[in-house]
Write a structure and sequence with these properties.
By secondary structure, the chain is of the alpha/beta class. The chain has twelve helices and eleven strands. The chain is globular.
Length: about 300
């Protein structure tokens, strides 16, 4: 099996999907090459490699820039922004042979679609044995309701890494975006990582409510931090042990409780990490190949 990955650099996550798929292919014994979607020689590289499958992450820019290339090979796209942008993604997802989606709520908007949730990369995200000097932290874009939740934490929030300037008291804690390995290192230094799901919908006229987990939950949990998150349905199925909140006051209460009891915090973090241990990029790549009808060498 020869796969060529068309990479996408996410605004907040950087090249985490690129590296995750590279490591997954190595683990599974797949002949894998890749290049960025903005690389002007992408079509030349793909033709020289002559892949059995063109695997495109995110998909928008490839659909705009490389339609001719997509028509020459069997293709799969991994949509990562459902349902927030589904009105736009549905307009071009038909260019791909197979469509894989992070959230099931918009399955009916795409042809030949299957679920493939986000995940973590064990080569990058793993627990450490060093100290955790940061009590509470957040990494990501501070937008929508996130600013309200994070502001409620006050001085408990030791670490804020964001690529969008946050309002009010959060501004003084803002740092620039960091590479995925550095984010993982910060997670290994943090006791509690806060997750507030995205709530801004750019292209979702029907206002379908998102149900899926985001990479932050998988990645921070894999690094041994305890994640506190606002609730979504997928949490009940994937990791019911993870503590959830529904208001800023509940978030503060949970954070204070787990900061005061390091034993309970460590135990709960371990339970969550065990529950999500199988949600790796290799597992997701096997899922894609199973749907397509190909058995990966190292799938067992």
């Amino acid at each position: 099996m020869r796969i060529f990955g068309v990479d996408y650099r996410a605004p907040a996550a950087g090249d985490v999907f690129t590296q995750g798929l590279v490591h997954a292919a190595q683990q599974l014994g797949i002949d894998y090459a890749h290049a960025d979607v903005l690389d002007r020689s992408l079509d030349t590289q793909v033709d020289a490699f002559d892949p059995d499958l063109l695997l495109v992450v995110h998909g928008r820019q490839a659909a705009t820039r490389w339609r001719g290339l997509l028509a020459r090979y069997p293709t799969a796209v991994w949509l990562l922004d459902e349902p927030y942008e589904t009105d736009e993604t549905a307009s071009w997802s038909g260019l791909y042979t197979h469509v894989f989606m992070n959230d099931s709520v918009t399955l009916d908007r795409h042809h030949n679609a299957a679920i493939c949730p986000t995940c973590y990369d064990p080569s990058t995200h793993y627990p450490g044995d060093g100290p955790r000097p940061y009590r509470v932290g957040f990494v990501g874009q501070v937008q929508g309701s996130r600013a309200t939740y994070l502001a409620a934490l006050g001085d408990r929030l030791d670490l804020l890494v964001a690529d969008v300037v946050a309002p009010g008291p959060l501004r003084r804690r803002r740092q620039r975006s960091v590479r995925p390995p550095d984010v993982a290192a910060l997670y290994r230094q943090t006791q509690i990582v806060v997750n507030v799901f995205r709530d801004q919908h750019q292209y979702n006229r029907e206002q379908r409510r998102a149900t899926a987990l985001n990479p932050r939950i998988y990645e921070a949990t894999a690094c041994g931090a305890l994640v506190l998150s606002d609730w979504r349905p997928a949490l009940d199925d994937a990791v019911p042990q993870l503590p959830t909140f529904s208001s800023p006051a509940q978030l503060v209460e949970l954070a204070d409780w787990y900061l005061a009891d390091p034993v309970a915090r460590a135990q709960r973090a371990t339970l969550c990490r065990v529950a999500l241990a199988g949600d790796t990029y290799a597992a997701r790549l096997v899922t894609m190949l199973d749907v397509i009808g190909v058995r990966a060498q190292g799938a067992a």
